[in-house]
Design brief:
homodimer, alpha+beta, D-amino Acid Aminotransferase, Chain A, domain 1, D-amino Acid Aminotransferase, Chain A, domain 2, 2 domains, 10-stranded mixed beta sheet, 8 helices, 16 strands, globular
């Protein structure tokens, strides 16, 4: 894991640089996406690595690439390689770096903009990142979070805009919390890097429908949930949390993570029955499942 | 103009790079500021360059540095040099690059973040940019703009967050417009890179009071205006535009630029009398004026 792809060239990672005129550095302008190469096994299903020594296979790659191209279009950036070519490069990248339990991040920036404002030919980066899987202890304990009034503009594109969330990190640390749950005018939307789910008193799986980034793990959870539960995609009000039986978040890194406390109010007692059931169902979904 | 300062070292500009793990590239996280080295002379006062061959002197530097440190604190980033040291470096930077009619951009990013989310020791860049001064023709014509519903979060810090504005560039081009004027719930706030002013029917100078980045040129214009006009800093409603005698914008690059059309509605007939008067007063303000 030490080759990084920059604009068509493989570089030793420490040499993977962008000139300071890049529009990400000048104006935070760019999009990215991130997907796992071989999903982590949920700890309660822990088995021996089934394919030791073999490079991994990206989980739901097709959906991630759909979203990457969608984000690029949303910010008027042209991906400099075709979809077919990108698939080939990702395969090559995995083999060259012998990736097994990593994530791959695709980044596309506004390019080397002379006037520091107008996007030009984008710079593109493909880089491997260690997957920081939550521990068994963390899953058992669940996330403790606080709500926070904020709405991202155009959240449907996975842009580089995380300023608001990152500026809140010291507040979270001070309060011993794991994350912030955005809400706006009384309606819950999402976490900065994860989607929100609630199990209501009738065992319905409920998740916010709009003003969110539609996570690929969210989509996969909805898919597997529909076969076993009633599912609702709709506005979820902060006031409803008091009646939630279980809450959890979904993300590419964390898969499903129980959320056991919101604004000091405890929800359930550790990971709920349905949360665990969905974790299992999600893991059973084929790597190349097509929606 | 070819040396760029990166983390304490002067580099040939083409070698001024940041590693792709920088938090500006990963998450758009950072702040900056920009100030002119010797202000442009308004075209209607055009005289010979008063100090040919001598390096320039930054305009209102103290206010820009106040804001740069303020922005850094707001995003929990520590400027790696003291205020005193930064003053010295800027003087040195101007002499080394023999800058006369340029702008200087200070950028501070979230640093080389291993987990791609948490800020670490910041990277700092000092770079010279050509000042793109609006032409006489453009001043005479004035800017044509459209209003657009949007509110930046924490606009008081000069962060790298320009995604929303930059994504609108194609729309502006398509409509032959110069800029977008943000408003929110019927209240005008600011342009993405400039502040908004209106001259009302009673020759009062009116400018939005809150939910804006407080521009240094805005502050200077308010200062010189108070000696000659009644000044109001308050909420300005979109509905009031219909009664504006003159409108203009202020920015470090553009100084004062008339705005002669908003949403297809013409305001005045070219640069207004008071707009021109303020342009002159602003130019007379001493480089090192202290507020």
């Amino acid at each position: 894991m030490n080759l990084t792809w920059v604009n068509g060239k493989y570089l030793e990672d420490e040499k993977a640089c962008l000139h300071v005129s890049d529009l990400a550095i000048q104006r935070g302008y760019g999009v990215f996406d991130f997907f796992a190469v071989t999903r982590p096994v949920p700890f309660f299903l822990k088995t021996a690595d089934s394919q030791p020594g073999k490079p991994g296979k990206p989980f739901l790659l097709s959906s991630y690439l759909d979203r990457f191209f969608h984000s690029a279009r949303g910010l008027n950036l042209e991906v400099p390689v075709s979809r077919e070519e990108l698939n080939r490069i990702i395969d090559e990248f995995i083999v060259k770096n012998n990736l097994k339990k990593h994530g791959i991040k695709l980044t596309l920036t506004g390019g080397y903009s002379e006037d520091g404002y107008q996007p030009v030919a984008p710079n593109m980066i493909i880089r491997a990142h260690e997957l920081k899987i939550p521990t068994k202890e963390k899953y058992q304990q669940g996330f403790r979070v606080m709500t926070h009034e904020y709405q991202r503009s155009t959240p449907g594109y996975k842009s580089l805009d995380y300023r608001h969330a990152i500026a809140l990190i010291p507040t979270l640390k001070e309060r011993g919390l794991d994350d912030v749950l955005y809400c706006y005018h009384g309606i819950i939307t999402e976490f900065p890097r994860s989607n929100f789910f609630m199990v209501d008193q009738n065992d319905r799986i409920v998740t916010p429908a709009s003003h969110i980034l539609e996570g690929i793990t969210r989509k996969a959870v909805l898919r597997v949930a529909r076969d076993h539960f009633e599912v609702q995609e709709r506005d979820v009000f902060v006031d409803e949390l008091i009646n939630a039986k279980e809450t959890f978040l979904t993300s590419s890194t964390k898969s499903i993570m129980p959320v056991t406390q919101i604004d000091g109010h405890n929800i359930g007692d550790g990971p709920g029955k349905i949360t665990r059931k969905l974790s299992e169902l999600l893991f059973e979904l084929a790597d190349d499942f097509e929606f």
